[in-house]
Amino acid sequence: MDEAVKELKEIVDGSNNIVFFGGAGVSTESGVPDFRSEDGLYHQQYKYPPEQILSHTFYMRMPEEFFRFYKDKLLITGVKPNKAHLKLAELEKQGKLRAVITQNIDGLHQAAGSKEVLELHGSVHRNYCEKCGKFYDFDYMANAEGVPVCSCGGRIKPDVVLYEEGLDMGIMQKAVEYISNADVLIIGGTSLAVYPAAGLIDYYRGNKLVLINKSATPRDRQADLVVQGAIGEILDQI
């Protein structure tokens, strides 16, 4: 165990008011592609760039193309929680971790057993008819041909925040409360480049800000501890 991981373990051992804020890097070890790495979604070739496809305007104008990309790249079957998800669920069970705040939409934190999960960008496991509001699950969307349609004839929309759409202010407010009251804030697997989510770090008032990421982030200088590496391997050691 290197010095940084040892220090992280001491911080975790000494607190029962930890909040975790995570991004795509938390799920890459489960086989879920991220957006900005070399083989991430932004570096793959499509007729339209992913940012355009995953926008509200594109969804409205070209739903067939939207759902083709969505089902191909975001509805990933067979993925399971990794060591990071499992460790966070374990810390919550021990009464040490108060909440997981995630930018991910894959539902892996809940699959690992975490109870208090704030999903800033929604979830692929929740889908609703735009006409009558009927709920549809992941399997229905994954197996639907073309544009998924409700029994009432309405189009079914994933409960996922697209570009140009606002975040759920109720969830954001709850995230702000958890972070501002936290003793320890651990941020992992995120480049801290996507706003407004990345701005949540500014609400932390404590002196135990930990950043865990494979590469440097714009906020490393603000951190009290920076641990570089795969987040699952690092959290597994504590």
UniProtKB/TrEMBL annotation:
SUPFAM superfamilies from the UniProt entry: DHS-like NAD/FAD-binding domain
Cited PROSITE patterns: SIRTUIN
Residues at the active site: 121
Record's protein name: NAD-dependent protein deacetylase
Pfam families: SIR2
Coiled coil, from the record: none
The keyword Translocase is annotated on this UniProt entry: no
Record keywords: Cytoplasm, Metal-binding, NAD, Transferase, Zinc
Cofactor(s) named in the record: Zn(2+)
Cross-referenced InterPro entries: DHS-like_NAD/FAD-binding_dom (IPR029035), NAD-dep_sirtuin_deacylases (IPR050134), Sirtuin (IPR003000), Sirtuin_cat_small_dom_sf (IPR026591), Sirtuin_class_U (IPR028628), Ssirtuin_cat_dom (IPR026590)
UniProt entry tagged with the keyword Metal-binding: yes
GO cellular component: cytoplasm
Family indicated by similarity: Belongs to the sirtuin family. Class U subfamily.
Catalysed reaction, written as an equation: N(6)-acetyl-L-lysyl-[protein] + NAD(+) + H2O = 2''-O-acetyl-ADP-D-ribose + nicotinamide + L-lysyl-[protein]
One term of GO molecular function: NAD+ binding
Function in brief: NAD-dependent protein deacetylase which modulates the activities of several enzymes which are inactive in their acetylated form.
Binding, Zn(2+): 129, 132, 150, 152
Compartment list: Cytoplasm
Binding site for nicotinamide: 35, 105-106
EC numbers on record: 2.3.1.286
The record's free-text note on cofactor binding: Binds 1 zinc ion per subunit.
All copies of domain Deacetylase sirtuin-type, residue ranges: 1-238
